[in-house]
Amino acid sequence: MVKVINVRQSVFEENNKIAMKNREFFDSLNLFVINLMSAPGAGKTSIIERTIDALKEKFKIGVIEGDITSSIDAEKLEKKGIPTIQLNTGGECHLDANMISQAIENFNFNGLDLIIIENVGNLVCPAEFKVGEDIKVMILSAPEGHDKPKKYPLMFMESSALLINKIDLIPYIDTDINALIKNAKEINPNIQIFKTSAKTGEGIKEWTEWLTEKIVQKRGNI
Amino acid sequence: MAIHIKIGEITGFNPESIQFYFSIISKGTIAENARLIMEIVPSSAKCMNCGKVYSIQERVLICPYCGDINSEILTGKDVIIETLEVE
Question: pTM higher than 0.95, yes or no?
């Protein structure tokens, strides 16, 4: 005899539960948390450095570094005196809520205002997993091309802000920035777009002013 | 034996891959040879301005009725294990 068992369970359920717990923890400390995502080499670490330089007088900032292996990025940031915890996924192509909950156990967040989680370089999987962040932010470097929102829509859909980085390379490449913005806005009409260069510093002011507003909004509300 | 799964259209999951890996990991378990019955759930959204529900075409989240840019995604973003048929 065949028996039918109702399961009705989302495969994301367990991750979402842990993400919610992480979020409650961050909220209890009045911390603003960004989940920063991009393809490898788009400039996540350089943008983090620029962001910290711009905001360090206003906020105490910590970084959770996600990489498959190595601690190159964490060492780089620690040299600048930034509290950093390195997470090595050991092969996984994204961070999930459980990994962040491990970071929570092993890191002292007291006195911090802003946490930047640098996700594993990958334009696909990180967008699927909530980790307990307030907002997701993505970077696309200009040379990656204007068709990327059409090819990797989920990340554009999930992100509150898009930094088009390496904008200083525009004279040398064929990327059509207006088409890129149009493609991104079709998928996520509310996405905030900043044209940045971690190399020259262009656009960092606009991006960090917007971020400051977001942080103040949350911290004011609690 | 069968497992019914609903896969949202705008997730990163695809039925061929699920079938491929299921065949491998189920070997030697009670789930071996279970049929996977997978249904793609089309994506839809509700316009926050005019309130109309529309199906999302090519992932464009702009209301086709009034052009508003604020929509709430209703379906297509989840992967749900619905039911198990067991003997």
Answer: no
